[in-house]
Amino acid sequence: MQDLKDISRMRLTIFRDYGWLLYSLVIRDLRGRYKGSVLGFFWTFLNPLLLMLTYSIVFGYFLQVNAPAYPVFILSGLLPWIWFSTALLQGSTSILEGASYVGKTIFPTPVLPLVPVLAGMVNYLLSLPLLLLLLLAFRLPLGWGLVCFPVLVLIQALLLSGLTMALSALSVTFRDTQHLLGHIVTILFFMMPIMYPLTAIPERARWIVEHNPLVGLFYGYQQIFYYGEVPDPRRLLWLLVLAVAVFYGGQFTFNRQSESFAEHI
């Protein structure tokens, strides 16, 4: 019971008392991403654009994936995936990289793994005009599914916050976590229908993909921007419940592991 009280107290401390700190750290992260580069902020659009062109050539031309307006199909799932994978990888090492802050009573350590999540969310939202331009170019309309977009963003933010808090804490004790995570992220990417539609998966193997909860998240983005559909409300509700559970589970793990941070850093 005491652990649950600590988790609730920590949540309030982060988002109520340290909102200003999160804001300043996120702004610093966004400014530092392309610091010193010639194009600077424009890499927000160029990075996903170059990835989209690469995957369009490989999957659309060489492998001949059958999907009309294929660049839109790719980008609608690729943009939230970039947010997901980048935040997960950076967040998992946030405590180790911010070791100088650990142990200081005036600094809330749980803020560190949340910075890549929020910075990635802002970067994702800023890159959406590129997707909207492609929608106009291919004359694909936006339907009522757009009202579900904030719900998907909230689900992904909660899910990533819980995962990064748990993984950042575990990485302090088990240093192999960060190395193993890179391979897991790569496997997840190719096991999810981001570069190919669900119909391209053989029937005998489709159950593996359909039982992956992350598929529902990224397919929801594709339903909104590519298919012009409204995501299934029952699936959204299930994803929201899962995201909240992961969020609190991540805080619980972080709270338990944080007591031994000073010993391992």
The rounded Rg comes to 19 Å
Helix content range of the residues, please?
Answer: over 70%
User: Could you say which structural class the secondary elements and strand pairing correspond to?
Assistant: mainly alpha
Biggest sheet: strands, sense, closure?
A: none
Question: So what's the overall shape?
Answer: globular
Q: How many strand segments?
A: 0
Mean pLDDT: 84
Task: Please report the number of helical segments.
Answer: 12
Q: Ranges with pLDDT <50 over ≥5 residues?
A: 1-12
Beta-strand fraction estimate? under 5%
H/E element string? Answer: HHHHHHHHHHHH
First-residue to last-residue Cα separation: 29 Å
Task: Describe this structure as you would to a colleague.
With 265 residues, the protein is mainly alpha-helical. It is built from twelve helices and no strands. Helix 4 (70-92) packs antiparallel against helix 6 (111-137), helix 4 (70-92) packs parallel to helix 7 (149-173) and helix 7 runs parallel beside helix 11 (233-257). The longest helix is centred in the middle third of the chain and has 27 residues, at 111-137. The protein is globular and about 55 Å long. The two termini are 29 Å apart. Mean pLDDT is 84; it is low at 1-12.
